[in-house]
Automatic annotation (TrEMBL):
Residue ranges of every copy of the SHOCT domain listed in the record: 159-185
Record key words, sorted: Membrane, Transmembrane, Transmembrane helix
InterPro entries from the UniProt entry: Phage_imm, SHOCT
Superkingdom in the source lineage: Bacteria
Pfam family membership, one: SHOCT
Keyword Metal-binding tagged: no
TM region positions: 40-65, 72-96
Disordered: region residues: 135-154
Species whose genome carries this gene: Brucella tritici
Name the UniProt record assigns to this protein: Superinfection immunity protein
The keyword Transmembrane helix is annotated on this UniProt entry: yes
Amino acid sequence: MGEHFLSKRRRLPLLGLSSTKTLALSEHAWAGQGDARSSLLAFAFIAAIIVIMAVIFIPTIVAFRRQHPNRWLIFVVNFAFGGTVVGWVAALVWALHYVHISEDGSNGGESGINLFVNDPVNVRVDPSMNEDQKIALPVSPTSNPNPSKDHSDAETVNALQRLKTLFESGAISAEEFTALKAPILKRYIHKTG
């Protein structure tokens, strides 16, 4: 009985090889060797797979075409979750989201891992920002388009005080302080001179 199993064990790899060779070299193993209908069906199947993959990877295509800073992360999300509607929509929204690309290349968030891109925010200097220093500004009527000289002087002083406060608190550097202060002083000198 032991000899019977030993002989079967020796023949087993040969049987597997011969069956694989028969399947691989068979006439019916290749789609192109059958009739025209089966080759047309195979072509339609391949075309359908290509169309489905193109639709699934629309968010990735959009991200790469728009040079999105997070295009590789969008690709990963799209590859991992693109088969689900939620993952596909999330990747598409992320790819279509407007991104501010700065000149210095720091397009990421404050965390530095560049997961979320900061949109540009316009900062408006408001006289009411500095509440602890109350400067009485004369109220000009709305009918007078030219404010009085005192009003512009008070605004200039207030703006310079706010810049000084920002500089002393460390919010802006010395170069930024000088760059922001120069146009205010220039405007003041031209008005008084």
